[in-house]
Amino acid sequence: MKIMYFEKTKNYMINAGRIIDNGGFCATGCDQGGTLYVEENRIAAVTSRNEAYSFSRVDYAAVEIDLGGLTILPPLIDCHVHLALDGVDFSAALKRWDNPEELDHIIEGQLRDTLNCGVLAVRDGGDRRGIARQAKSRCSAPLIKSPVHALRKPETYGAFLGRGTLLPETGNVLDHLVMLGADHVKVIVSGVVSFKEYGKVGPVQYTLGELAQIVHGAHRRGLKVMAHASSDEAVSLSIAAGVDTIEHGYFLSDDSLSKLAEKRIPWIPTVIPVAAQLHNPAAGGNNRLNRYVIEKTVERQLAMINKAPGLGVMLGVGTDAGAGGVRHGYGFHQELELYRNAGLSNSQILQSATLNGANILNLGWGRIQPGRPAAFIAVAGNPLDNLAALKRVQYAFLPGQSPPDNSQ
Ligand SMILES: [Zn+2]
Predict the structure, then answer these.
(1) 158 CA to middle of ligand 1, Å?
(2) How far apart are CA 195 and CA 178, in angstroms?
C-alpha cells in the first residue's frame, strides 16, 4: 500500500477502472472507468474516462496518475479503537505504558496496519494515560480523533480508560480535556458484556441527571459525546441524556433502535470484540457454555444490525481494536464480514464504513464529489460485487503534504 499526499500547487488527473461514491453507486458507471480531477487538495471534478475537463488553475503543472483497473472509493473509517492496547495481551500492553520506547514502536506498527487496511481515520475510545492523544500529535496518517481519557465514576468499570471523575469535578475535568486537545468526550455509562451469562452487562454508572450534566458540559465546550453503553438500560439512558453516539449497545431493544433513528444518533455496534472470543481459549472459547453465550450474543447483535438501516439508524463501523482478540486494522475487515452475516448489502456496508464514519468523525470525507477534500483509497476489484476487494488496498490519497488534519 502506497500513501500519496497531494500538493496544493499542482493539478492532478487520476484515471481509475471505477469510482464508487456514497457506497451505493459508481459515480461514472461501474464498468466504463472514470477520471478524478484534484485541485488545491479538493476534488474538482469526476468524469467518465476521456471526457474533456479544464483545470481552473491553468498555470499549475498537471500530474497524471493512471491507476489502471483499480476502484476508487472514500477512505474506510474506524469509529472505535483503543490505540493504547494491542488486542493481543492486555496486561503486557498495560505494562508497556511505562516503557515509552517500546510503546511508540508498537503503536507505530498498529497505525501502519490500520493504514494498510485502508482505514485512514480512527476515533479513539480513550485510555487512562492519554496515549492515543500523544500518538495523534506525532503521526500524519491515519487521522486520529482522541478523547484523551474517558470519563467514568470512580470505583466502577474502566480503570484503564480513565482515572474516575467525581461529578462536581466534571466542569474542571472537561476544561482540562479541552486544553489537552480532546476531539470528543468518551463516557462510560455501563460495565461490559458478560461472556459467561447471556444478557448480563455490568451496571449503569450514572443517573439521568448526572449523565445529562456531563453531556451538557461537553456540548457547551463544543465536544460531542461518545457513550459506552452495553445494555438496553444504558442505551436508553444515554439517548435520554442527549449523547451523540451509542457504542456497543448489546441487547438494545426495538424501542431504543427506533429512538436512535428518531433522534438521529448513530450506533456503533462493535460485534468483533465479542465474536473474537470464539477464537480466544483464554476467554472461554473452549468452554461450551461460554461459547454458546458468545454465539447467542453475536447473533442477537447481528439481528439488530439487520434492522437498523430499514429503520433509518445511521450505523458506523467500530472495532474496539485493542480489546482482547481484536487487532488494529484487520479487525475492521472482520467487522465488515459480520455486517455481511447480518444480512446488510455490500452497498449498505460500504456506506457505513465510509460516509457514515466521516459524518461521525466530523470529516468532510465520505463522498467522491466536487468540493470534497481529496481523501480516498484505491483497491483491486469491485467491492460492490465482493467486499474482499477492500482487503486489497493499493493506494491511499490524502490532502496536504504532511499532517493532513492532525495539526489542528
Ligand atoms: Zn472501547
Answers:
(1) 10
(2) 36
Neighbouring residues of the ion ligand 1, judged by CB less than 5 Å? 125, 320
Question: What single DSSP character describes residue 73?
Answer: E
| Distance from Cα 284 to the centre of ligand 1, integer Å | 20
Q: Tell me, in angstroms, the distance from the centre of ligand 1 to residue 53's CA.
A: 46
Give pLDDT tens digits along the chain (408 positions).
999 999 999 999 999 999 998 766 676 666 678 999 999 999 999 998 778 888 888 888 889 999 999 999 999 999 999 999 999 999 999 999 999 999 999 999 999 999 999 999 999 999 999 999 999 988 889 999 999 999 999 988 888 999 999 888 999 999 999 999 999 999 999 999 988 889 999 999 999 999 999 999 999 999 999 999 999 999 999 999 999 999 999 999 999 999 999 999 999 999 999 999 988 765 554 555 688 899 999 999 999 999 999 999 999 999 999 999 999 999 999 999 999 999 999 999 999 999 999 999 999 999 999 999 999 999 999 999 999 999 999 999 999 865 444 444
Distance 79 CA to ligand 1 centre (A): 10
82 C-alpha vs ligand 1 centroid, how far in Å? 6
Extents of the domains making up the chain:
2-74+367-399, 76-360
For residues 155 and 194, give the distance between their C-alpha atoms in angstroms, rounded to a whole number.
19
Cα–Cα dist 70/65, whole Å: 12
CB-CB neighbours of 45 under 10 Å: 17
The residue whose grid cell reads 485502508 is 118
User: How many A from CA of 247 to the centre of ligand 1?
Assistant: 8
Q: What CATH fold (topology level) applies to the domain 2-74+367-399? A: Urease, subunit C; domain 1 (2.30.40)
How many angstroms does the Cα of residue 130 sit away from the middle of ligand 1? 14
Q: How remote is the CA of residue 311 from the centroid of ligand 1, in Å?
A: 25
Q: Which CATH superfamily is domain 76-360 in?
A: Metal-dependent hydrolases (3.20.20.140)
Spell out the residues 6+ positions from residue 97 whose beta carbon is closer than 8 angstroms to its own: 84, 103, 129, 131
CA–centroid distance, 100 to ligand 1, in Å, is 22
